[in-house]
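Possible race condition, two jobs.
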Amino acid sequence: MIHHERFPEPDIPVFRKQPSAKKTASQERKTAIEFYEIPDNLNKSFTYKVYKNDELAKQLNRVFMNKCAYCDCNYKAGTPDDIEHFRPKGAVNKFVGFVDQKESDKPGYYWLAADWDNLFISCPRCNRAEKYDTGLSSELWGKKDRFPVADETKRARKPEADLASEGALLINPCIDDPEYFFTYVVEGNVKEIGLVKPKDELNADEKKRAEASWIVYALNRPPLVSERNKCVTDLKRDISQLVTALWIFVKRNQIPGADIIYEKQNLDLAIERLKSAIEKTAPFLGVKRQMFRQALEWESVKELKQKLNVDLADFL
């Protein structure tokens, strides 16, 4: 999970403000508010269409670089994306004490169903609830309509409510920096490499937010941990290969008249491989950045800086 900079509401048809326009965000919001002002409709479903707009989906994929906003996986090749509502539109599971309600409260944050700042791109496994076998128990993970807040008495239930006062517990990757909250296991027991957990230095409120997000976004579901484990292994290999390629190139270049074409090609390939692994569009950047920062303390990497004036931190 990483931070994403969300650009302002894009100038696309569904967000244009023509009073007579149909199927725009503003018109749908107005209709939904009118629908839920009728008491008999509070437990009924409203049909939302704007958030499913293809051009809107393209803009969201620009923000999140074709990756899941929550787990940072690159899923586009194998599964369709879900346009996800940070604050759920249809119903809300309060998830008090990290325990599911038997029935979610209806309606949800219906006035935000097509709000640009409330829309995210998510992989289905983060967005939907699924059971996972952790080896000790079978647990239900995933966001669905879960949205815990710090003060349930201040939860926003109508459009005029102040969203900030309810104290959303879930980390918002477009506002918060997830890397401030989480740390990854990148050394030690190979079975644990790839796990994510709240940082020890967080205060009580921050830790509660990290724990809520860790559960709701299913950040430690076994398939995801396995993928992060592989990323750590691959990145360690890429860094080691670059260090080796640099030393070989430098030593070969010190030989008068030596042909260094082969060494230069190997070095360029090693550099390109590492850059590709940690570029912004690459998956699982949170664990990769942490692994990379720890690798800067390797003796072989520090020696590069001391003797060759090559600082791998420049790659970040």
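Job #2 (started ~2 s after job #1):
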Amino acid sequence: MPRQIEKIAVFPGQFDPITKGHLDVIRRGVRLFDQLIVAVGNNPEKSELFTLSERVAMIRKLLKNSPGIRVEKYTGLTVDFVKQSGAIALLRGIRDVSDLRYEFQLALANRAVGGVDTVFIMTGDHYALTSSSLIRQVISLGGDIRQLRGLLPALVIQRLKAMKRPIMLTTDPDAAGG
């Protein structure tokens, strides 16, 4: 009997911070594959709230008892990481029509550039409006972190409260000069 090839997928993202919506996609997505790699990377177009190592550590802790899931950090092109991992597909979460348009373009580019297919999964309806970028903005503008309990895992809320450094996500070079 021929040996069956393990079906591995990669769920890439910045995950800064990881949200309950991300965890929803991960927990439902892993059922479609033998193994799911949560690939934590940096997006040079976005500011960081947590360092790459902090994000990886938090996600590993949140998913430590989840079979079939491993968490890795990566740099460079996502399609290159997918190929190096031996994965057959990318997993992407879709929240709404705007996501669909962007993700559709990205999926076509990933297939054209790297020969990698994308599997889409709809996020749970109660997470459809959740966005890490929006959460970073709320935090940077002094929003009450406790109000984010419905969107963020308790561990992330705890780490946000414990941050010693000021939560400033963008630097405006013109602000200092007046």
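The chain has a mean pLDDT of 87.
Logs attached separately.
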